[in-house]
Amino acid sequence: MGTTLVVNPGSSSRKYALYDGRELALEVRFEDTNTGFEMCSQVSGTQQICESIKESDFKSAFAKVAEETKNYLQRELMGKKLDAIVVRVVSPGTFFQKHALIDDTYLAELKKRESTAPLHIPTIVREIESVKKFFPDVRLVAASDSAFHSEMPPQAREFSIAVEDVNSLDIHRFGYHGLSVASVVRRIHPLIGQDPERMIVCHIGNGTSVTAVKNGKSVETTMGFAPATGLPMGSRAGDIDNAALLELIRKKNFRPIDAEMYINTKGGFAGMAKESDIRRLLDRRSQNDATATRALDVFAYHVQKSVAALTVALGGLDVLVLTATASVRSSELRSLVLRGLSHLGVDVSKDRNDLLIGKEGVISVRNSAVKIVVMKTDEMGEMALVGDRFNSSDK
């Protein structure tokens, strides 16, 4: 196994990791925290170091990462060369629903889709171009964030629109956060001692989705054609009544790109409470802020509805997993999301939930019909495995 650099550009963060084989060697994270920009780095076996940075440093993050990577390879790995760079790709389209080598054709197809995922694709394109600039001779691999959902059954994948438009325009429910859910499937057995037959995974971060997993396979998920769909999120509206969207277009004289940006930047918490950071909303809620409380109640209700609906796809529920940053950091958020699910057999232990902050474990009571698990997502590790498969295919 070789060396792999993982590039994970999100809607509000940039995450990077260098793997030597399957061992994590170096991590670097850049984040827009709404109170400023921050960079955190950690060499394996040492303590994480964080510092405030300028917005310009955030925008040119990969230049710093390239320097750190080259130095580490020379200093710690005896001058090893990079074997692959893996970039997380979030884009609508059957073309993008598989892991693939990134070449000029791939990049051109990605650019054509920029308007459909304006919080993601322009950033991904910039990252790919930066990678090509600093590492022009290294194999470049796209880790598809929708590949995990590619085998969803037709009743979950298709829209009720004219079939000729479905086929000619490639309009389907593609789903996202697939790398995150795949990492949960890969790591759930060591944590709880079983591979659940019927599992629901709630990925709650700046982006949010709920996925039904049956025997390790995605059978339904809340995100659809584009990553702005599904549940309310940090600034993304999620699913709204199509007649309401058409009314907004008429009354506000929106062009298609205006409507696209509206549902991506003026929706979710940003729309309801003028604040996209869940942590700040929880703080405001603790101070009896009615607007923040209502926004969080709306969010929790939609997650609860989705969990209940996805049990239909599974025929029941054995394990419920809460993953991604917001889920892992906040016991209060977990309580809000889970409180309306007791009729499904979800029974949370308050003591376990309150104690489990920033860690993995089970937070349900001992006799809960549904086991409730908190897990850190491992998108980066999942992406490294994608790169390793491409490295191995050449041997």
How does the major sheet shape up?
Answer: 8 strands, mixed
Listing every helix as H and every strand as E from the N terminus to the C terminus, the arrangement reads: EEEEEHHEEHHEHHHEEEHHHHHEHHHEEH
CATH homologous superfamily designation of the largest domain: ATPase, nucleotide binding domain
Strand percent estimate? 15-25%
Radius of gyration, in angstroms, nearest whole number: 21 Å
CATH architecture of the largest domain: 2-Layer Sandwich
Say how many strands there are: 14
Written overview of the protein:
This protein is α/β, with parallel strands linked by helices. It folds into two domains: 3-144, 2-Layer Sandwich (Nucleotidyltransferase, domain 5); 194-375, 2-Layer Sandwich (Nucleotidyltransferase, domain 5), CATH 3.30.420. Helices cover 41% and strands 21% of the residues. The protein contains 16 helices and 14 strands. The strands form two sheets. It has an eight-stranded mixed sheet with strand order 5-4-3-2-1-6-8-7, with helices on both faces. The chain has a six-stranded mixed sheet with strand order 11-10-9-12-14-13, with helices on both faces. α7 crosses α16 (379-392) and α12 packs across α14. The termini are close together.
Summarize the structure.
The protein is an alpha/beta fold.
Question: What is the strand and helix layout of this fold?
Answer:
Elements: E1 3-9, E2 13-20, E3 23-32, E4 37-43, E5 49-53, H1 55-59, H2 61-75, E6 84-89, E7 100-101, H3 104-112, H4 121-134, E8 139-144, H5 154-157, H6 163-169, H7 178-192, E9 198-204, E10 208-214, E11 217-221, H8 242-251, H9 256-265, H10 268-273, H11 278-286, H12 290-314, E12 319-323, H13 325-329, H14 331-338, H15 350-355, E13 361-362, E14 371-375, H16 379-392
Parallel strand pairs: 1-6, 6-8, 9-12, 12-14
Antiparallel strand pairs: 1-2, 2-3, 3-4, 4-5, 7-8, 9-10, 10-11, 13-14
Helix pairs in contact: 7-16, 11-12, 12-14
